[in-house]
Amino acid sequence: MSGNSFGTIFRITTFGESHGEALGLVIDGCPSGFALDLDAIQKEMDRRRPGGTKHGTSRNESDIIHVLSGLYEGRTTGSPIAMVLFNENQNSKDYGKLKDVFRPGHADFTYEKKWGIRDPRGGGRSSGRETSARVAAGAVAKQILSSRGVRIDAGVRAIGGIAAEGTDFVPPFSPPLFTVSSENDDRMLRMIEETRAEGDSLGGIVECRIRGLQAGIGEPCFDKLDALLAHAMLSIGAVKGIEFGLGFRAADVKGSVDNDQMDETGFLSNNAGGILGGISTGEEIVFRIAVKPTPSISREQRTVDRDNRPVELRIEGRHDPLIVVRILPVVEAMAALVVLDSMLVDEAERSLR
Amino acid sequence: MSGNSFGTIFRITTFGESHGEALGLVIDGCPSGFALDLDAIQKEMDRRRPGGTKHGTSRNESDIIHVLSGLYEGRTTGSPIAMVLFNENQNSKDYGKLKDVFRPGHADFTYEKKWGIRDPRGGGRSSGRETSARVAAGAVAKQILSSRGVRIDAGVRAIGGIAAEGTDFVPPFSPPLFTVSSENDDRMLRMIEETRAEGDSLGGIVECRIRGLQAGIGEPCFDKLDALLAHAMLSIGAVKGIEFGLGFRAADVKGSVDNDQMDETGFLSNNAGGILGGISTGEEIVFRIAVKPTPSISREQRTVDRDNRPVELRIEGRHDPLIVVRILPVVEAMAALVVLDSMLVDEAERSLR
Amino acid sequence: MSGNSFGTIFRITTFGESHGEALGLVIDGCPSGFALDLDAIQKEMDRRRPGGTKHGTSRNESDIIHVLSGLYEGRTTGSPIAMVLFNENQNSKDYGKLKDVFRPGHADFTYEKKWGIRDPRGGGRSSGRETSARVAAGAVAKQILSSRGVRIDAGVRAIGGIAAEGTDFVPPFSPPLFTVSSENDDRMLRMIEETRAEGDSLGGIVECRIRGLQAGIGEPCFDKLDALLAHAMLSIGAVKGIEFGLGFRAADVKGSVDNDQMDETGFLSNNAGGILGGISTGEEIVFRIAVKPTPSISREQRTVDRDNRPVELRIEGRHDPLIVVRILPVVEAMAALVVLDSMLVDEAERSLR
Amino acid sequence: MSGNSFGTIFRITTFGESHGEALGLVIDGCPSGFALDLDAIQKEMDRRRPGGTKHGTSRNESDIIHVLSGLYEGRTTGSPIAMVLFNENQNSKDYGKLKDVFRPGHADFTYEKKWGIRDPRGGGRSSGRETSARVAAGAVAKQILSSRGVRIDAGVRAIGGIAAEGTDFVPPFSPPLFTVSSENDDRMLRMIEETRAEGDSLGGIVECRIRGLQAGIGEPCFDKLDALLAHAMLSIGAVKGIEFGLGFRAADVKGSVDNDQMDETGFLSNNAGGILGGISTGEEIVFRIAVKPTPSISREQRTVDRDNRPVELRIEGRHDPLIVVRILPVVEAMAALVVLDSMLVDEAERSLR
């Protein structure tokens, strides 16, 4: 209700704050009898970890998954699967100074307005740390999807206004930037270093593609497949926009250009991005999301404290100048949750015919 | 489950196809004792009507709302409010020819794949006609929101690549194009006429703003206010993308530019578009959506029939060369449903403190 | 949210009051391609109709089902199925006198407390009339279940303290009382006539059995199959209790008596009533419900009006001295909704293994 | 979906099996700013513990609650509250022998049918151990309810056919039997010892009363307050029936007896058990549930193994001869969850009027 659950059949609930005792998740509705690869889950966790790439922060978060329930001899039993990640620095002093100040670009102000009480030790449920739990759940979903021939990949399409260029979207993508094509990686890396030196941050564009999904998955009305994916993506903290297929460019072209025509071999183009009327066409599902620059910057900013007194704020410590790379496994995870759940819903609908 | 309901407390369920006997909706969870203005609902219906503006089709759809339940002496009773709109031309022959052909850009192909059966008389639940029911429900929500000082307006930001220019966003906007600023209306109108003459269609950009919403509404995790709005907007048939505040441009700028700083008078900018961490800031909520060109065009297109035989298709009849104007009340309606429901959820959460 | 929907996959929403313009329902999630027998639905409606048996009231309610959506050439399309029943006497004067008085045993007082506004023309959403919509929805579910070999029957086990006796539960049961065995019908009929003459009313016990349901349907935790059936049955206005299998007698016996032992031919008894740990055993599901006497009686009763002034109330008009017979199709309908929905949920869970 | 969540606004999700690593729960939608008394939660846990009364088993389960999230300086923050209980004997050999045998009265057979895989170390999600998590969640709900003047008490009304007699229902009730009146405690205790000596078990009747709940809480249609309570109670493993107010006796009396008349001082009786039309009347809510005898008995029983071969089974070890006492905090917990959630839903509905 407070929206800490997601999905209909394959339904996850996450809990935990960045500086509490632990974060975690519960998966309800996971198919039974599936041999879960825990190492593969841990690998997904590592992709999201700040130290996972050269450009991450040096903070030492604990991202070790502990499975509490739902498995027997390595297989899912149909019971809820609970996993936790224990926080290490739950009593961090780093955040002490920020206790009564609303950090620009963060949810501090809105949290205070909503609940009248705020755990000042981090971003609460809007914290990037919460996405750990999503990645763990998504890793389970990805394994099941993979066993059905569905593959989901996200790569970086642009950073700070510099677009990836060259032959593109042949995953897996390469560190450190995981761009969909690497010709401009050097320019991006220089810009990242300059921005870090300035105490500033960068955003970017992420592209995600879902391959191998059969035609006919999704719903035609409120729960269109693209609507669910948009819901999922905009639920990731820094995401400010999403577009499918041609996306915003579809607004500029004519119907004769936008329509995907067909012949006996199938669709002749994929401007729709793999979804028509909310239902998968069998083509690649393609979407892009806009990721805003990390709000935590060490440059001086104007803000107010809880008593509405003006404050000149400079956020200390090493901060990620960009999260667009770390967000990739989160994007894939959320996409996997939507697709797997939609497939299960579809199975229910197709049954008893 | 098949996704014909939307919302948590103020929850609507819609039903009906474009050529069945009737369309309709049920609102559950409407506050009781509210004096409903039925004329205001009908006016919203008329805005969505094809003949509502000069550039609509000449089809004669019936958009007269009949209230079946939930009111007593003009006031809501807390019981579900059901409304229906009876279809006139439910046995249309117009669609007979298209019975076995998948129209490009429509959901015909995906419907067939999903259900194995398809009512060939129209677009089923993916039809634009279904949005009538949403507009009726949204009109109820808008009245309640208005009584609480919340106002929602959508206007046209661009058509076919031509942007509205000039002083902007001072609603109500003017017919026939309802642009957010009217300096380029003439250019747009010429382009529309040319496109119509070519048997082609145009898309556009719609901007929506929500004013008067208090800070603190929304959820920080999966059901972020922007995530719910994205879900709502992408559930409208022709919408291919959404962005909030700076949107995709946020991906290009630095954190020091994107962050909305504050002083004792409030926020100094609104790049976030009125939402931080999924919760309203008290600033205007601003988002834009990309609307694809109408898929029904009279130019010849390649497609296949149900037996996968190639077909050269030319869709007869007069068709709207653009739906970007007719979509405005639908956008406002869906936004109103999200905002009102979020306010009611928030009330539940704030209670018993 | 206000609880006018029921089910997860096969999900119904009902609307309408006893004296509004119409009642109706929307079924979402009905399997597609099913040839629906509308006559069979109407027959179920007739079973619930006051004039359906000798002992019904003489009120002339309209119970003709109109299908508004979701069918094409007689088959379900996967789109929501909406049905309405138009009320005839929506401006009844009969209820005028009761406008400001709280009828004992009815929801008048609690409605007033909850919503602060009350449609005085009937029992609102707690009215028996609302169950018409349930019967229509249940009739759809029963047809689909029947095609899968699942049969649901309810019969009268007792009226006013007189138990049905003799060889029992061989449906279909016979009018006018539809007892599970008819040896005591004459005694019951005499008691009914005497009670009617006194202006009083009677309750009774209904037994329902579900046959042909495979083992393995249901959930082990909060949504146990018996929990869902209990929810469904207690949601019927006059029902005050439910028991499964041995029921309350299970509280009196020892484990060695209660436990259903097995041998290679299956279960050796069915004290559990066909459900263990919330999941069907494959045996008959058996439950009984307690139906209170009809609250509308013509004997003088003490009550208060909206201003809390004492009133001596005598409810005029002909009233059903018992609803235990008319409730049978409602019980079957609600059971059918639970069972079909559980089967569909189970299908989703079994898939992708 | 698999039904491991319960509630709408105050919504809990539980996880864990009796012999996995841990059990736990997540509460979503808890009001923020509430000072939670963790000791009081632990006391509720102890009531449910096998060693909590003389007649419990000697098994040493760990029932220590660990709070993982959702609190800051002892107060709820509005974030999900996660709690876990670590299992001690998760690799118990006791259950090894039962690995391939279906224990009578347990869910072993139905689990196998549903999921095709079964963790043989215990009762899975149908295990009594799962109710620990419910008690913890209910203890939170009870604290909030208590702060609003709502009190919930359950006591034993009968054991093995022996009814509690004497002045009754003046909580708190006394150990070891917690009967609603203690005159027959000695007889019950003798019967319990005899039954234990026989290797057999006993059931009983539990009565629960909810005091201090204002009139107007609940819904009139599918989610009647009694329907939700019935759902909650039948979701407890051993419960085979429920009745409200007069309950099954209401089926035997006439309307003039059953109807609760009113005068200016309020209701003159409470046969309805505090609920009319699904909505609270402001009177005490009263219901009784039938608890079957514990299925684990050491007497020889006939059953089959997974290959359907007949087995003579004798379950070793010390077993509780009755759970009717240990179930009391579970009953109160589930009632508290329903009532608090209903109050929060009601707040949402009452708002924006």
Structure description:
The structure is a homotetramer of 353-residue chains. With 353 residues, chain A is of the alpha+beta class. Helix content of chain A is 24%, strand content 22%. In chain A, the strands form six sheets. The first copy, chain A, has a five-stranded antiparallel sheet with strand order 1-2-3-7-4, covered by helices on one side. In chain A, strand 12 and strand 13 (266-267) form a beta hairpin.
Topology:
4 copies of one chain form a homotetramer.
Chain A: E1 5-6, E2 11-15, E3 22-28, H1 38-48, E4 66-69, E5 71-72, E6 75-76, E7 81-86, H2 108-115, H3 131-147, E8 151-159, E9 162-163, H4 185-197, E10 204-211, H5 225-234, E11 239-244, H6 255-258, E12 262-263, E13 266-267, E14 275-276, E15 279-280, E16 285-291, E17 301-304, E18 310-313, H7 328-350
Antiparallel strand pairs in A: 1-2, 2-3, 3-7, 4-7, 5-6, 8-9, 8-10, 10-16, 11-16, 12-13, 14-15, 17-18
Helix pairs in contact in A: 1-3, 3-7, 5-7
